[in-house]
Amino acid sequence: MPCCPKLLYLSLDALLKTQNDDVRLNCIAFLTVLTQRGFFQASHANGMRTLASNADTSLQIPNSTDGCHLYTLFTEAIKGPLLSSDEQVQIGILDLIFYYLSCEENPEKKIQLLVESSIGDYVFEVLRLAGFRDPVVNSCLRVLDILSTAEQAFRQTLAVGFTTLIPILQCVAEVPYHPCQSQILKLIWSCVSNFLGVATTSQCEELVLILTKMLRRHREGEFGMLSETFTIICSIFVSMIKHPSYHDLLKLIIGVQEASELAILSSLTVSGMNSNQILQSLYLLKEAYAYGHEDHSTNNSNKGKLRRSIVDVCKTHILPWLVTAINETDDEEVILGVLETFHFILYQVSDNLARELAETLISSSWFSFSFESLGLFPTERMRWRVYLMISSLVDILFGNDSGQPIREAVSHLPSDPSDFLFLLGQKSYRDVLLSSCQSATLFILYCSSLYDERLADDKLVLASLEQYILVNSFNLRCGSTDSLTIFLLVNLYGLYRGLAKMSYQISYSPEAERIFFQLLTEHEWDLACAPIHSISLKWLFQQEKICISLLTHQILKLCRIYSSNNIPGIICGKSGRVLDVQAIAQLVVSGDNYAAKVFVCLLEELVNEKSQESDLLSLLNLVEHIIGILPDTSDQLCLNGIAKAMRILYYDSGPNFSPEVYSDSLIIIFNLLSSVHSESVADGDAWVTVTTKLTDQLIFRGDMVSFNHEELLILGILCLILYHSTNGALMEASKTILLNTPLTSMMCTIIHQACSSGPTLHDDDEKTISGTILLHVILLQYFSMRSVHAVLPGTIDWSSFLDKSNTMPVLPLLRSHCHELCMLIHYGCPLVKVVASYCLLEVFTRLSDQRQRQHEDFKCSSVYLKSVMAVLEGLLFYNDSRVAVNCGQCLSMIFEWEMVRSGTKKVAEKNKWCRLIVEELAMSLAVPSLVSKSCSNNHKASIYMAIALLKQEKVPGWMRSVFDDACISGILQNLSGSCLSTELILLFRELLNVGFLTAEHIGSLNRVLQECRKLMYHENVEVDCEEVCPGKAAAVRDDTSRITDHLVHLMSYSSRINRGGASGSKQLLEEIETFLRASAEEGNG
């Protein structure tokens, strides 16, 4: 159409000059049709010369050959309609602009002209006034999207109009798949990226909230989102966190933390893997971690939470997804993207979170995954990424640039792990490249095996290691090999030899073993330079050829390190945490190696040298912690002769060491004897010598009032020696204690002085020096009485304890008369009462045994016996059940004795206090709903006294009235299978024996007993297990409470065992069976 240029010109001129919206609509419609048909392009191609010659002169059309005047006219003509109040006009002109700019392949000049003519400002103003009307908003954003392609020219316009975009985004973001989401987000991204600080703090915070909400709704499945939208959102977050002005913005930190997690979760869980989304979310995650790692931040704690969140996402989401996705995708870029993200975090070597991620990766079979990746994607990029990441893992886990050998050889390392073994078996003499590859191979094998990953068959790896040792023996022995290589060989060769032994594989190369041991002898190496596999460690300590000559030196190094780093339970080397003391303790306790012997030999060596006291202290410190971690190590140490080393320390070395050495050795001796089983203690001269030295030290101090922690520790050791003698061990050492007259005299003096204090004795509790000394002396008396019965049986007349008028025993036994023990029980502090009551119970037990054995009564005044009974009766309701039960059992033995006809029976018959106790017991048990385990525990002492009265040859008559039919029926009604105790069953058994139970009573009780037995078996009670000794105590410096507690528990245990007591559950079942049999016999009779 030759007239089209003229029509365009006339239409634009009309649009420019008219103020009527109807005319504008017609002009816009006509221009839109012309634009869509390409007449603007045609006019530009043909020029305006024809139009100028044919046009009316009144139009004054300039002579233009390039159409620029037409463009200018278009630019001016559209401004008026853009400012129109008619929405249809605005939408029409915006659509015209869109078609005008998009109809050409290269509209850059048009766009530039529109931008320079401030059309962008007009459009932003239309957008601002649109009031969220969707048609206008859509048209505006379409035009702004095209105008933004003129990046340089549009920047200023975009910066000015940025404030308009945030409210519009808030509206658009609420609509899933809104057609303009990507367009407005691109505008925001462009603005945030190119204009530093264009958004105010409040605008940034609002933008963060909007974008995070979009991702959250998308993650939860209620909001669809285009891939392009997802990508731009991630890019906006990245742009914001890169701007310094936003670095300490709290809402941005929190928003980035949530957004990075939501982005990852959304991209990983979407059906049908979208590689671009995954890569974008990984990019955001990486940049967020860098953002959280920046220094000089005022929000360090919040940025720390951000880093923690990212590492948690990597551990709990990305890593599991990666392990699964590796076999489901052929997109190498995605796998590389994940590896790059992990590697970026690992590269922050000083970060504890990087170490945490490294430990998670390495414990998730990372080496196997890495080589699986190389098998699936055998490209150069993947190989470099895998090996560089492994080198970073090694750096983090072992420190000191440990991964450098891998980095140096990365370009030559194979992708197939089986090729490692081939490389390892080659001779590398003067071949630097091969030697480098072999070093990297050893490191990779070491690291993988340390976490129980096997890159090849164990036999093949062992064969390759032996081949490496054999063909490279000259290189290894010439001195050019560093200590780290030797350590790697130690760990690997020991590990695979240990595994071969465990699988009963006997075949190995004796020559390789000989060279290996020779290498260990000739080269300096350090067991603490890096972690070592437990199997390798055990195999090394099973080799007698190197244990004493080499491993003692290595143990000494470990002791020095452990003493210097002062981290309980951990040995830290140059690479950080190397070895747990737990591992060494397990090695010692297993007994299938020479570890215990190495420790003992090293101790003897250091004591004999008498020069390196610091080394001796370090060794004693490590041994102390080993015993504290696994008390059963005491058995192996004693079996391997640690007592001999202590004898040398105490006797042969003389005053060559500081008090600290002797103090540490005392702690070790106490811990040994408190933990060792008696059968593991050899009754040799060594312990006798040590015991003599310790008792001499006590006697040398003389004044016991000034005893310090060491002397109290020695008293505890003497108690333990005496305890072991009751089990047949340390008999001679115990005699040294029992027959030591000066020691006995000192101890007796302490007890006599305490008894003379009267009521003021209560103030001397275990928190005072005098109270602590008294407590240890009474404990020593108890264990002495227990020991003398085992070590020197039949040499003590136990009746001498019963009356102060009697002569002292022939042996210089540490002892107190019964009335002194009663004074201690009556006036002493709570713990003194406990220990003294056990002493009195021991005396009464031995008196009863002696009476039965000799078949004669004791000569004891009635007044003395009554005074003893008065004290015991007063403590039957003491709040410590141990004191109450012991006093009750002592009373029961007095009632069972038939010494003085006018004494005991008469006392038992007419004692109103006894009757009151039994009546209170019966009432407590018979009152409805009051019987429980706690109730019966509180009345144990009363039950024992009631049992003793029922065992009398002539049961007191009032007992029948107390335990009448109504009382017994009431007790039975309160009983259930869950509230029975051993003492209650013993009471019912005695009531059965004296005929107080009717057939109905027996039937009801039998049902309760059967219910209790069924309940116990249902709860899987271990009825066959033997009760073990109380928990082992570890003595500590300047703290006697743990020592005292252990001795008191040991006393309680030994007292119960001495009387034939069993563990609670086992004894209860035994008593149930005994009663059921007795009741059956009663019924048959």
Automatic annotation (TrEMBL):
Coiled-coil residue windows: none
SUPFAM superfamilies per UniProt: ARM repeat
The organism's place on the tree of life at top rank: Eukaryota
One GO-annotated biological process of the protein: meiotic DNA double-strand break formation
Protein name: Protein PRD1 isoform X2
Source species of the chain: Punica granatum
Organism ancestry: Eukaryota, Viridiplantae, Streptophyta, Embryophyta, Tracheophyta
